[in-house]
Amino acid sequence: MATAKEIREDIARSRAYAKKNNYLKTLSCLANAIRGLVTSQVFGAEKFEIQSHLVEALRDLNKMKMIQKLFPAGLKYQKGKEKAFYQTLDRLHKKLAEAMEKARLDRQRKRLAVLDGNLIKAAQLIKAGTPIEARTLYAKISEYFVDIDGINSDIGNRMVTMGLFQEAVPYLRKALDVQNTDARAHNALILAFEGMHETEQAIGAIKDAMRWLGPSENLYLRAAKLQLALSDWGEVYNNAKAAHDRNPLNTEAAKLMKQAEPKIFTGSGSRGSGGRAAKSHNLDF
Fold first, then answer.
1. How much is the mean pLDDT over the chain?
2. What residues contact residue 282 under an 8 Å CB cut-off, 6+ apart?
3. Which of 255, 231, 230 is nearest to 243 (CA)?
4. How far is residue 179's CA from residue 204's CA, in Å, rounded to a whole number?
């Protein structure tokens, strides 16, 4: 059962939301106030004061553009018929909420269709041999659709798939700044550095992935392959063994261990200066 104070607070909130043009909250607070008046034990001068405030709140509601469009003559409140008026406000709130949600979903669908169209266009520009135009379009997509979860991760992954390794890196770093457990972004960043033959940075990206996603057979194996390119036999062995420990049937890890063992124990485990990372195009861990 609402108190007079609670009813007055609902009315005040309703008027505040009306000033902000928030239809749903205006209706909700006003309906709560009416319901409170119906179920409360408020009488006399206090009830008269509340009813006066309700009239003012209803005047604010009737000034709102959508209400004027739906009810040109305005919604009317009659003393003694609070229950019927509450039901009217409640029905209006529900119908308006449904209509606004439908409109929101329609806008979202149209916006996502625009996004999809632009992503397809960017891919077509790359295939047509105009990567500069594609990069410009990707930059605009990232800026305009910044509110869409994972947009930079998606752009970065697409760029890696298309072979734009260097260009993908900033998008993937942005994605990981927002969500450091984004597995797709971690994986694509490793691939980008591999594609650029930046072995040290690829190894660093693997370490970051392990930090945020946890170690895995796949990451250990990829690290072992990259260390092989640097002839860092101790790390080749350690990472290959970690992968093999997680999956004893991993023949690739077993081969790397076998290849690294004699280098370690014969003292030829010095780290080389060159070598290129194995290039992978698998975008799944």
1. 90
2. none
3. 255
4. 18
What is the per-residue pLDDT across 106-149, written as a single tens digit (0 to 9) for each? 999 999 999 999 999 999 999 999 999 999 999 999 999 999 99
Q: Quick one: three-class SS letters along the chain?
A: CCCHHHHHHHHHHHHHHHHCCCHHHHHHHHHHHHHHHHHCCCCHHHHHHHHHHHHHHHHHHHCCHHHHHHCCCCCCCCCCCHHHHHHHHHHHHHHHHHHHHHHHHHHHHHHHHHHHHHHHHHHHHHHCCCHHHHHHHHHHHHHHCCCCCCHHHHHHHHHHHCCCHHHHHHHHHHHHHHCCCCHHHHHHHHHHHHHCCCHHHHHHHHHHHHHHHCCCHHHHHHHHHHHHHCCCHHHHHHHHHHHHHHCCCCHHHHHHHHHHHHHHHCCCCCCCCCCCCCCCCCCCC
Tokens describing residue 81: 């018929």
Are the C-beta atoms of 123 and 115 separated by less than 8 Å? no
Q: Is residue 110 classed exposed, middle or buried when 0-12, 13-18 and 19+ CB atoms within 10 A define those classes?
A: exposed
Looking at residues 63-85, what average pLDDT do you find?
Answer: 87
Residue with tokens 């990232």: 142
- How many other CB atoms are found less than 10 A from the CB of residue 24? 14
Instruction: Convert the pLDDT of each residue in 134-146 to its tens digit.
Output: 999 999 999 999 9
CA angle 266, 267, 269 (to 5 degrees): 110
pTM of the model: 0.72
Q: How far is CA 110 from the centre of its chain?
A: 18
Residue 218 exposure: Cα atoms within 13 Å on the Cβ side = 12
Q: Which residue has the tokens 């370490």?
A: 207
